[in-house]
User: Fold this.
Amino acid sequence: MKELIFSFFVFVTLITTGVTEEDHGYGNRPRGVPSSKAALYLEKEEFECLDGSQKIPYERVNDDYCDCDDGSDEPGTSACPNGRFHCINLGHKPMDVYSSRVNDYICDCCDGSDEWDSGVQCPNLCSQMGAQARKEAEEYKKVVAAGFSKRSELAKEGEKLVKEKTAAKEVEDKDWEEKKNAIKKAAAEGLFAKLDSDGDSKLTIQDFKKIAEFDNDNNGEVSDDEAKSYLPGEEELNFDSFFEKSFDDVRRILRSKEPVEEKKETTEEPNTEKEENIEEEELEDEYSAPSESHHIEEEWEKKPPYSEATQKFIDEATQARNEFHDALRKVSDLETKVREAEQFVEFDYGPDYAWAALKGQCFDLDENQYTYRLCMFDKTTQKDRNSHHDVPLGYWNSWAGSDSDKYSTQKYDRGQSCWNGPDRSTMVEIKCGEETKLLEASEPAKCEYKFVLVSPAACQDPTKLEENYHSEL
Assistant:
């Protein structure tokens, strides 16, 4: 009888204190509310929906009827389709699940708290899962520590490369300018000689009046005023004055008066590189014109051997022309090197240049009948191993990670077009690893590829990783 009375007393106590409803691990919070929102669910006469849309009596919280538009009054039931239920998961990581999963006869929380009223007996697996997660975290910490050490080496190598490229760019810039100026001066000398009709090493009004192209009003003669426009404030020009004050204008006028059919036509948009190449072609034409070498070569088979003096002139002209072309080639090579150095130096390799050392390196992965290749900051390809043909899956576009983790993803696009589909593209997910290698390749959507790359360059400082891990717990 005493035992029966004691049991009845316990039952009454549970009913009157509400323990059957509240003893769920959430303390004084309603079921399904995380501790971070406890202050918003303090028991009082009215509960205000978290979106501020309305106030309801507090007893309507978790009454299995959705009152708030944002679902905040039903954190512990499935009444609101847009609600969230918080799993405490003591011993493992807490998590939120959609309210629709509450009491749906499927155990989602490792502590089984989401099935509190379905009758399903969910085993509490949190301790087991937590132990496994901690073991994996410890193993991952070792990988991160080793990877971060290698990242430091990559960063030093990358910083060294950037410094070397920067220094090389400065030298090549200077060399490029010097060679360009030398070629321009050589062209100016050729044009000066062509304009200097009396060979006195001076250009006067009379010299300019003899060139029909300077007849700006097209009246059949070059007036004094028209000629003077090429002698800015001077009675005559020696070569230095001509090069400094008049060469660019004279060259422009002469080029503009050429017959239309001789000009190269193009419908492409102009750019700096093309303009520089056009300028070199113009300089080449102007430099080569005075030698009349083309005429000499045409007459070679028609005339007897030249005199020694003439032959010497031909040889000197040929040598000068060859030297000029050689200089043009060197300038072109320097332009290419300067552009490459500029692109390398201006590229975003991360805050410590860790990715710079990997630029241009390629990594392969064999998957089924295909070989996938990622060439860092260049392109992604797919190759059927029974074929010699590579299919471009994308070309470098940008870093595409979130604002807080920018360097976690790369985007490659503008790949080969799919049949009746878009251009192929690749998103490369990057994770920490002790060695850089391509780990996965898939096509989750038509013509949209996903690669997974692991690399030391993606490894965080282990101390920061530890902080993040504890903050999650």
About this structure: The chain has three domains: 2-124, 156-267+275-346, 360-472. The longest helix spans residues 126-195.
